[in-house]
Amino acid sequence: MWLLLAIALAGRVDRVLAVIDERVVLESDVRLDEELSVFDLSPVPFWTTGTGEERQIAAAVLDVAAGDVALYRPADAAVRNRLEALRGAFADRDAWQAFLSRWGFEESDMLGVLRQRMRVEAYLRRNIKVSPMDPAFTTATAALLDELAPRVRVRRVEP
Question: What pTM value is reported for the model?
Fold first, then answer.
């Protein structure tokens, strides 16, 4: 009985913002994305445009479109290198560990997050014929998302 009372009083842990096919986008995903976009230097401008919620929903659409196609799957070594670069963006090892702890992550969890981000980036680079350095890349990304929209079921969850 006390356990049920404690659970009832604990409050909301997280909130579902959208469901893309079978993939869930949580409020915590958005907060992590917003923090990561400061530290994780991406080769494509996708992670610095729009709001965190817009990016996470778009990333989920792109990730669903990429599926498990080997062409979009980043090599393990590339993901580890990206993790090393991300770790190096923090002042020291303690700051890195504090970041991971704040999110309840181990480095292996962050590898999974980075792998998903890199799969989205690979999908964009492969399917957009404009250089990521070109300002038109953002417009081309929006056009690609419009093209994918009818193929992917997106359901936003109201608060």
Answer: 0.88
53: three-class secondary structure by DSSP: helix
Q: Containing domain of residue 15, as a range?
A: 2-156
The Cβ of residue 29 has, within 10 Å, a number of other Cβ atoms equal to 22
Q: At what angle do helices 52-66 and 107-127 cross, to 10 degrees?
A: 70
59: number of Cβ within 10 Å: 24
Between CA 47 and CA 27 the distance in angstroms is 16
CATH number of the domain at 91, please. Answer: 1.10.4030.10
CA distances from 115 to 5, 59, 86, 123 (A): 39, 12, 13, 12
The per-residue pLDDT for range 74-125, each reduced to its tens digit, is 999 999 999 999 999 999 999 999 999 999 999 999 999 999 999 999 999 9
